[in-house]
Amino acid sequence: MPNLFLFLLAAMTLTLAPGPDNLYVLTRGVTQGRKAGLVAALGFASGLLFHTMLAVLGFAAIIKAYPAAYHGLQYAGAAYLVYLGIRTWRAAAAMSLQAATPPVPLRRIYWQSVLANILNPKVTLFFIAFLPQFVNSQADYVPAQMLLLALIFIVQALAIFSAIAFFSGIVGAYFQRQAGAALYLNRIAGCAFVGLGIRIALPE
After folding, report:
1. Bigger pLDDT: 60 vs 32
2. CA angle, 92 as apex, 27 and 196 as ends, to 5°?
3. HSE of 67 in the Cβ direction (CA atoms, 13 Å)?
4. How far is CA 103 from CA 13, 92, 98, 116, 202, in A?
5. I need a labelling partner for 204 at 20 to 30 A (CA). Which of 67, 111, 121, 177 fits?
6. Are 193 and 85 in contact (CB under 8 A)?
């Protein structure tokens, strides 16, 4: 398959561009530590498997053909991020009233990340528009080629997200040792999630 290196370079560039996925991983790593960020990274990578299936099977064309379906998913994803933001802000408010608030369970962080990724139709449309550019349409097994490219994309995304989680966890651990920092970090995280939700809901 031609241009694998070019595909990998383009995929890494797109993954590093600021967006809901890597910003969510960054926020989780800063507010709750390296392990939480890594779990969020794994959740988003897992969510990409869903978009891979849609792209390979051609279901993404339905979303592209029916704007109402696209916008329905778009607003559902935006509402979910706003909901997470409000919950995080309320957790920060509760933290200010008691000595310690239990962190968000890792399993919940994982499934929040998976769901946030699945509810982002822009990822599905990206896969259906981006992957075919690197497929040799003259060769056999076009779906297999798309599947291979998608798996390469997922692996590099997981690696980049994990690196973001690792370093954000180090930064978060430093701030967590400062008096009262956890309260403000959670408030910032809540605002960040709400902001991401609003950004997704806005027209291009």
Report:
1. 32
2. 40
3. 1
4. 32, 11, 13, 19, 31
5. 111
6. yes
